[in-house]
Amino acid sequence: MKVGNIKLLNYCHYIFFFLFLLIGLVIYKDYGFNIDETFQRRSGLHWLNYLAELFKFDNLSSITNKKIIAINDFTMPWAEKDKAYSIIFDVPAAFLEIFLNLKEPLEYYHLRHLLTFLYFFIGTIFFYKLLKNRFDNRFISLFGCLILITTPRIFGEIFHNNKDIVFLTFFIITCYYYFQTIDNEKIKSIVLFSLFSAICTSLRIFGFVFPVLFVFIYLLSSLSKKKDFKKINQVLIYLFFYIFFLVFHWPYLWNDPFQNLINHLSNLSMFGSSIIYFNGEFFNSKLLPYHYLPLWILISTPILNIVLFTSGFFIICRKFTLKLFNVEKNLSGYDFWSNNEEKKDFFIILLFFIFFIGGTFFSVKHYNSWRVFYFLNFFIVYFSIYFINYQFLLKTKKYLKLLTTIIIMLTVFNFTRLITYHPYQSLYFNVLTTKQFKNNFEIDFTGLSGIEFLREIVKSNNKSKIYIGINSWYPLWRMRELLPDSDKKRIVFVFDDINKADYVYSNKIFNVNVNKSNKFKLNENFKIFKQRIIDNILIYEVHKKVER
After folding, report:
1. What are phi and psi of 308, to 5 degrees?
2. CA–CA separation, 349 vs 327, rounded Å?
3. What is the pLDDT of residue 1?
C-alpha cells in the first residue's frame, strides 16, 4: 500500500468526526421544537438564578429573574418536584443564552439544539474511544459509531432531545472511564468514573446502577481471588467521590441531600402522561404490558442493528453461560472472566440485563415510545460490534465477504431512511411494520410538527387573524413565540369553543381513551385540510372549517 494511503487511513477517524460535525452544523436548524424545551429552559434559568444569588452575581441574578418572569405559560406549573432536574445541560445553555445576548426565542432554542448536538458529538468520540479500547480496531470502532449515528431514532433526537440524548452521552463516557479503571486502576480513572457516574445519576436515576455494579463486581473478584479484597481502597475512593460529586454538582440536594433525594425518587411517577396509546389500545402508563419495551425496540430499530445485536448477544451470552457452568473447574483465574476484555464485556452485559429486565418487568414509567430507554442503543451497537469483531477473528472466513456485503447494503439503506424521514427521523419505524401497524402507536408525542404547521398556515393564509384550535393533548401555543413578530399577532388560539377555529391541528396524542370519550371529537363543520405523512406514518393532520 502506498505511503499516502496509509497516512489517509491513519487519519480516517478525524475525517469521520469532521464530516459528522459538519453535517450537524448544517442541518441542526431543520428540526422542530418539542414540548419539554420551554420547561427545560426555565429549569436552567432557575438554577442559574439560584447560583447567581448564592455567589452574589447581582447582574446575572437580575437578568435571569427577568427571563423567568417573562416565561408565561399557564400549562407549565413550577412545583418543588420540577426543580429536581440535573443542571448539567440546562444551566450551561441558560448561561450561553445570556452571555451571547440572545433575545429572540428562535435564537436561544436553536442554541439549545446546537448544544444538544455538540454534547452528543462529544459522546460519539468517547464511544469510539470505548470501542477501540475494547476491540483494538480503529475501523470496527468507527463502524460502531456509524451504526449509532445512523440509527434514525437517535439521529432525529440529537438536535432537540436534551434529556435522553444528554443522558446517553454521559452514559457512554461513564462506561469508558470504567474501562479505564479496569485497565490501569489509577486514582485518576476512578475519580473520573465516579464523577460521570454522579452526573448520570442526576440526569436519570438509572445512574445509581453504576456504584451498585462497581461494588458487586469487586465482591465477585474478591470471591475468586482473595488478594483482590485488598483493593477495597479503590471501592471506598469511588464511593466517596461519587457521593461528593453527586451533591456538589446537583444544587437540588444542597439544602437536605438525603431527604431531597428521597423526594425526587417518590415524585418520578408523577411526570408524563397518565395514558399511552400502544398497539391500537389505550393503557394506563403505570400498567403497560410486559412486551411494551421489547416491541418498541423491535419495530423502531433498523434491521441491521437488530440482526447484528441478536448475533452478538447470543455469542456473548453463550460464552458467559459456559463460564457459569464451569466455575468449579476454573482454579487459576476469575470465575466469570479470564482477562480485562472479558471483564468489560461482563460489566456491559450485566448493565444490559439490569436495565432491560427493569424496563420490561418492573414498574418503570414510560414517557411515550421507549425514549427513556434510548440509551439501550449503546448496548445494541456494542453487541453488534462484538459480533463483527468475532467474525473477523475467526480462523475460517468463508462467509466474511458475504457478511461484509450485507452489512454495507443495510448501512446504505439506513442512510436512505434518514433522508426519507428528515427532519422527523425520531419517528422512524423499520420495514417490519405495515402502514396500519405503524399508526397503532403514538407518533409525534413531543410535538415536533407544531412549528411546521404554524409556519405553513401563516404562509398560505393572508387573513389578519387566523384562529387555531388544538384537537390533541399538546400545547401548540408554545410554538407561537418562534414565529416572526408579524406572524405572532396573526395567530389566535381558541380554547373555549373549538368551533370558532378556522383550522384545527392534531398530532393524535390524547390524554383520554378516544374510543370511549368524545373529548376530541370534531363536528361535521370541519373537514380534512392536510395530512403530513412520511413512510405511511401520519405525523399530524389539519381540519379546516367549512362554511355552510
Report:
1. -65, -45
2. 18
3. 46
Burial class (CB in 10 A: 0-12, 13-18, 19+), 176: buried
CA 194 remoteness from chain centre: 22
Spell out the SS3 assignment of 410-439: HHHHHHHHHHHHCCCHHHCCCCCCCHHHHC
| Angstrom distance (rounded) from CA 362 to CA 428 | 26
| Spatial separation of the C-alpha atoms in residues 428 and 319, rounded to whole Å | 34
Residues making up the chain, counted from first to last = 548
The residue type at 114: L
CA 529 to chain centre: 33
Cell of 17: 468526526
Phi-psi region of 280 (alpha: psi -120 to 50; beta: other; left: phi over 0): left
40 φψ region: left (φ > 0), alpha (ψ -120 to 50), beta (else): alpha
For the chain, what is the mean pLDDT? 91
Residue 452 DSSP SS3: helix
Give residues with Cβ within 8 angstroms of 125, minimum separation 6.
Answer: 17
> CA–CA separation, 447 vs 468, rounded Å?
16
H-helix or E-strand spanning residue 403: helix 400-421
Residue 18 in grid coordinates: 469532521
Strand order in the sheet with 537-545: 491-493, 466-470, 503-506, 537-545, 526-534
Whether the pLDDT of residue 300 is over 80: the answer is yes
Q: What is the pTM of this model?
A: 0.95
Who contacts 274 (Cβ-Cβ below 8 Å, separation ≥6)? 284, 285, 511
**Residue type (1 letter), 443:** I
- SS3 call for 442: coil
The DSSP symbol for 508 reads S
Residue the block writes with cell 470496527:
140
- In the predicted model, is pLDDT for residue 119 greater than 60? yes
Q: Where are the alpha helices (H) located in 136-231, listed in sequence order?
A: 138-149, 152-155, 164-184, 187-203, 209-224
Residues 6+ apart with CB under 8 A from 336: 220, 224, 320, 323, 324, 327, 342, 346
pLDDT value, residue 238: 98
